[in-house]
Amino acid sequence: MARDPSMSLLEPALAEAASFVEGALDTLLPKPAGPESRLMEAMRYAALGGGKRLRGFLVLQAGRLFGVDRRGLARVAAAVECMHAYSLVHDDLPAMDDDDTRRGKPSTHKAFDEATAILAGDALLTLSFGLLASPEAHGDPFVRCELVARLAHVSGHAGMVGGQMMDIAFEGGAPGLPEITRLQRMKTAALITFCCEAGAIMGKASATMRNALVTYGQDLGLAFQIADDLLDAEGNADEMGKAARKDDARGKRTVVSVMGAERARAQASALSQQAIRHLDLFDEKADLLRAAAGFAIARRA
Amino acid sequence: MARDPSMSLLEPALAEAASFVEGALDTLLPKPAGPESRLMEAMRYAALGGGKRLRGFLVLQAGRLFGVDRRGLARVAAAVECMHAYSLVHDDLPAMDDDDTRRGKPSTHKAFDEATAILAGDALLTLSFGLLASPEAHGDPFVRCELVARLAHVSGHAGMVGGQMMDIAFEGGAPGLPEITRLQRMKTAALITFCCEAGAIMGKASATMRNALVTYGQDLGLAFQIADDLLDAEGNADEMGKAARKDDARGKRTVVSVMGAERARAQASALSQQAIRHLDLFDEKADLLRAAAGFAIARRA
Question: What angle is formed at CA A196 by the lines to CA A192 and CA A197, rounded to 5 degrees?
Fold first, then answer.
């Protein structure tokens, strides 16, 4: 696909956001102390030093549209990254996807042990909500409650956890495109959507603007997942920092295996363009979000 | 120990609260549906139909002191019971305490499988916060945020999860009484304390009254844990609905193994009486809480 000119602005902005979110996480994650220090070490191992921080970036950019205070956004971005990190730690467990590597290093249960990984995931999940409920996240308690309620919705049984359960339930089966799409909406797109919506909630955006960001996030999330599946089908382990072709090896059906790579790529591109159109009511302040929709499908890892 | 006359009032009150909380949980837990229905089945299996609901009872009774609306209390009690249920599901996992039975039935990973148990725990934990953040929990968003923040604190790395990590870290070691007490404060007493504090938060109690309930909860929680360790050391599996003498088999040091059963019993009794004294500023409305402090150490299972 043609490289969007705004992509050249995106890369430094992503890098800046990643370092900003990393700094916030470093401050907000507990420091190892006491006989339970292994827990904090594992939390930090799982949450720090890796990933593109796309989710944190989306929180920052969506909040910027409404002039939201950057310290509050940092905290909410950190909360989302803790939630994402926990989901990776638990998904990698032997009883789940049994992945030994993640972001090019041993997954948490390999670097520590299974019990510590389960507990570190639990503690990161719990910390997410603690971060959102604290007055430093936003001055208005109504806003904080809405953040907590939405995050609980998109990450629990009706969202991320439900999606992971569905993923397991479909193993060895033959889910169709509607089932796979619903799975991906819950497992991946829901949290990405929350990131975009969070900025609107914090900025007390109009229902129209909030809805524009929600639909942007939904399409972006699906496009992102298809791109991930394409990487898995075609990429190699070095580029991905995790084992490649795992879906195929497990007989896991994805949009790519059902539609074929070419149609899946076209579908991701259509979703990305649709995501960008949802942002039509915003001015050039939303250009980085527009570019992110291109990035989501153009990335190589 | 002498049977307190108010104990005869406690048993029906506990039974009534258990059935009320059970009803609330049944309504608030998601119904099984879709390809992910196994998740909801496991959540319901883990959270419904068992336990004394002491935590839910404490929420209801503490809230009653301040005339808090019972529907809101039901939701908060359900949230606490979801949190407690998740902690049992994860603690029972093979990588953790590896317990096959719980409340006289197969533990969740035995009745389902490990992956489902991990996910059901994650979803119950997440649901707890969703329940607290919803307007049905309390009309004032500031109160809801405080509930979320406090629950995150007592159940995360500085509370329940940290306590479980410490428990693992101490295995095979020789922690002294201060270490064991800190562990029990975090692992057990913190959530019990939250139950009592939640009623005060919801009732917008004065700092003095809130603090009285917090200190009551702390002493009650420790007394409860010592009573639990006494049951483990002396009880049998039938009475407890789970394997007995596990601490001993694992070489786990408890207040009982360090002090001996007799001194531990005296310590539990002293803590229980101290808990009751913290309630001196309340009238007879707090009699059931006083009786609960007696129950905590007198119970046989």
Answer: 110
